[in-house]
Amino acid sequence: MSSGWWFLAAMIVAYGVANLLQSIAASRTKMHHTLDPGLLVRLLGHRIYLYGIGCQVLGFFLALVARRDLPLFLVQASVAAGLGVTAVLGVVVLKWQLPRSEILLLAALVLGIGGLVLAAEPAPSRPLGLLGKISLVLALLIIAGAGFFAVRIKGAPGSVALGALSGLGFACAAVAARPLASSHSVFEFVSSPLLYLVIAHSLSAQLLLGLAMQRGSTNAAVAAMDAAGAVPAAVVGLLLLGDRIRPGLTWLAALGFLVTLGSVIALTRYAEPQAESSAPVDVPAPSDVVPHRPAPARPVRPVVNGHTPLMDLPTREYPALSESSGR
């Protein structure tokens, strides 16, 4: 049995925790309407975001090792399974109440990943030629140019657009990482231009993801990222990098991929902008004001009533987590 399966499972857990922590920090940072790299610096000022980045870096290296043997269509689609981990953590730790529709979609997500696991056949990657490396450089420039315009889109549509561009960036990083993981020595690994393409695409994709999380729910941003990142990586892996499907199970791989992708996209229907809440404001009654003391100068924080969708985390509902962010 390939050790890549264990790395794949650990990667899913790491990315699920990272999604949760980064969304909390992003909602506590001033909204940006330009492609400002300074956003990453401001996000790094949040302790929770640093924890999330740590989990994402761990997931990145686990995914890198998993790609040494496992095909890209499996590894990239499995990143979406982190949504399930986030949901479980939300229910257990933050006492989320998930609607039945979300539970069914998460169950379908698990079934889709299971089909991919059964259909995938471990195999080493083929090398990526010069033309492939040049294509990755051009893709980096195109994604950055598209992000310059997408950052002007507000609300959930902006979250989806920026999340999709982030997914394309992570897909390019995955394509570069698959042959890079087959390096035979540390010197070959460090001297390979693929390593620096992985870093460049990952940093730009991380910036786009941070911007996406500010404009709508984390659900919309992450789902769009996973959907946009899974298909290109799967196609490139099968056509150019030697990814394999077990004989006779092509139908299962296709079905599992479609179910996984469809489940992730369907989760975006629960997306609601975090910054545009219409919840009523809890104004204290006159009898609650202590005599001879002035009323507070700052506005009273709104209280959000009703159901909180998956990963929509207005941090005013979680004061303990907000205090731990260092702000």
Note the topology.
Elements: H1 4-27, H2 38-43, H3 47-66, H4 72-79, H5 82-93, H6 100-119, E1 120-121, H7 130-150, H8 155-180, H9 186-191, H10 193-215, H11 218-240, E2 244-245, H12 250-266, H13 319-324
Antiparallel strand pairs: 1-2
Provide an overview of this structure:
The chain has 327 residues and is mainly α. 65% of the residues lie in helices and 1% in strands. It has 13 helices and two strands. Helix 7 runs parallel beside helix 10.
Strand elements, count: 2
Helix content: 55-70%
Number of helices: 13
Strand order within the widest beta sheet:
1-2
Give the low-pLDDT segments. Answer: 271-292, 298-327
The proportion of residues in beta strands is under 5%
Please give the oligomerization state of what you see.
Answer: single chain
Count of individual domains:
1
Largest sheet: 2 strands, antiparallel
Order of helices and strands: HHHHHHEHHHHHEHH
Tell me the overall shape: globular
Please state the average pLDDT score.
76
Look at the helices and sheets and give the structural class. Answer: mainly alpha
Output the keywords.
single chain, 327 residues, mainly alpha, two-stranded antiparallel ribbon, 13 helices, 2 strands, disordered C terminus
Short description:
With 327 residues, the protein is mainly alpha-helical. The protein is built from 13 helices and two strands. The N and C termini lie far apart (47 Å).
